[in-house]
Amino acid sequence: MGKSESGDSCTTQQQQQKKKRLYQGPRQENHYNEAQTPPANYPDPEHEHYEVPKLSPDVPRIQLRLAGDKRKHNEGRVEVFYDGQWGTVCDDDFTQHAAQVVCRELGYVDAVSWAPSSKYGKGEGPIWFDNLHCTGKEKTLAQCPSNGIGVSDCKHTEDVGVVCTDKRIPGFKFVNSLANHVESLDIQVEDVRIRAILSSYRKRVPVTEGYVEVKDGGRWKQICDSDWSQHNSRVICGMFGFPGERKYNARVYKMFARRRKPSYWDFSVNCTGTEAHLSNCKLGDRLRW
User: Fold this and answer.
1) Which of 76, 99, 186, 200 is most buried, judged by most C-beta within 10 A?
2) Last residue of some domain: 123, 147, 168?
3) Mean pLDDT of all residues in the chain?
4) What is the pTM of this model?
């Protein structure tokens, strides 16, 4: 097998809806950035050793992502995967403390600000959380008091967004947050990204096409295309808030791979296409180079 890197090309919500333009109301230019001090006993991420949160059985298992158009990787509309479906969060009673919980659940050190009134566009599906009252100490947004998951009187014009600091929590790992326990075959990585290679995509925000890379042991590594499938691409695009995947010129990426000596991740990936995040997929075989 010749080595080459897996690439992905994702469709944006704008591309899917270019014939169905939705009025989103006036854009809010400024983020709310409240002068709130961290709550008592709030962990200091600069000196924190990350541990996988241990949640009681009664806490709903959710997965978060940031979505929307015209955004950087560390900002966007807050979306929640629950009961097999992506939904959003209402801006009613949302605070900087809630933004902190969101950002830390995604592996970022802290929240910079948050934005009301669907600044990043209107989402779709259920509005899973409304009237959240977070202290900032919660390990997951599902631990914050609210109306109850799925109980809301909001519309998608009230979808909330956040801006997280670009710095990652030391030692953070994405794990299968939808399961009650972590299995040995679950994928555990510090971060995932789509790295733009072609010059036409490097200037795009957000990045919609490029190599799929994972951060493991503090280093970014490319995923080899061995056993890569359209199901895997669908999951990668979905976890970055894109509604779907599309075909790309694989020969171009193979050509770039031959020009340099990349660092490959040691494993293949097995997704069914329905997972909310790469960490929900199964770890494949160890690859032999």
Assistant:
1) 99
2) 168
3) 81
4) 0.75
Its domain, for residue 261, covers 7-13+178-286
CA torsion, ordered 103, 106, 109, 115, to nearest 10 deg:
-20
Clarify whether residues 215 and 186 are in a common domain. Answer: yes
In a domain, 213, yes or no: yes
Question: Range with the lowest mean pLDDT among 11-20, 24-33, 52-61, 266-275?
Answer: 24-33
Residue 260 inside a domain? The answer is: yes
How many independent structural domains does the chain possess? 2
Who wins on pLDDT, 180 or 152?
152
Same domain flag for 185 and 85: no
Residues paired with 213 in a beta bridge? 193, 222
Domain boundary among 109, 134, 168: 168
Q: Is the pLDDT of residue 113 over 90?
A: yes
What tens digit of pLDDT does each residue of 55-94 get? 888 899 999 999 997 788 899 999 999 999 999 999 999 9
- Residue 53 within a domain: no
Residue 206 lies in a domain: yes
Contact 17, 252 (CB under 8 A): no
Q: Write down the pLDDT at residue 55.
A: 83
